[in-house]
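Exam revision sheet. Question 4 asks you to relate a sequence to its structure. Input first:
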Amino acid sequence: MEGIINIVTTVDNVEVLDRIGAKLLEARLVSCIQILGPVKSTYWWKGAIETAEEWIGIMKTRRNLYTRVQEEIRRLHPYETPQIEALEIGRVLPEYGQWVAEETVAGDRTKTETP
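Answer key, structure tokens:
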């Protein structure tokens, strides 16, 4: 079974995250997106400490689809420098891993469209 990863991104608008998730699901690049929030984020940005309310999107996919998922998130994301992180999954319930793989296998063949 291909390596399963979680890809995490954050955005300050849940509707934007819904749209990103929908596009990735339609393209079969992810099997699922979980949206959490809002959360309070405090961070350095351009020399100053900023605070924002954000939403977290956690997407399930296969390691070999990371680059395409990253490209699509960057295309759709409003931030200048979005958080896009891949978290390796060391172990996974085999049936769950099989589900992720089956739901994203078409992502190997699809090309994402521009809006």
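Marking note for examiners. The radius of gyration is 15 Å.
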